[in-house]
């Protein structure tokens, strides 16, 4: 993808495609593969997210459910 920022061990680990994402923290958005304009900040934030778009998840273990679409 383009214009992504991943900071932290495992942050954005599964990213295959997607633009404008910001993942900060250990395993933040770990399972996200194709999300666009996602923001996940915190330890394990949005870890199980697969392909949500336009989501903002902040906090330790926040947003643990799988997401798709705009949340």
Outline:
With 71 residues, this protein is mostly beta strands. 0% of the residues lie in helices and 25% in strands.
Task: Give a written overview of the molecule.
The model has no long low-confidence stretch (mean pLDDT 89). It contains no helices and six strands. The protein is an all-beta fold and 71 residues long. It has strands at 5-7, 22-24, 39-41, 51-53, 56-58, 68-70. The protein has a four-stranded parallel beta sheet, with no helix packed on it. A two-stranded parallel sheet has the order 4-6.
List the helices and strands and how they pair.
Elements: E1 5-7, E2 22-24, E3 39-41, E4 51-53, E5 56-58, E6 68-70
Parallel strand pairs: 1-2, 2-3, 3-5, 4-6
What is the strand content?
25-35%
What share of the residues lie within helices? under 10%
Poorly predicted regions are none
Q: Largest sheet, described in full?
A: 4 strands, parallel
Oligomer: single chain
Task: Describe this protein with a few key phrases.
globular; 6 strands; two-stranded parallel ribbon; 71 residues; mainly beta; 25% strand
């Amino acid at each position: 993808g383009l214009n992504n920022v991943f900071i932290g061990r495992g942050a954005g680990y599964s990213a295959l495609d997607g633009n404008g994402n910001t993942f900060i923290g250990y395993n933040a958005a770990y399972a996200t593969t194709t999300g666009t304009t996602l923001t996940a900040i915190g330890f394990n934030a949005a870890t199980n997210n697969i392909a949500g778009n336009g989501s903002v998840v902040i906090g330790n273990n926040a947003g643990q459910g799988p997401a798709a679409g705009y949340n």
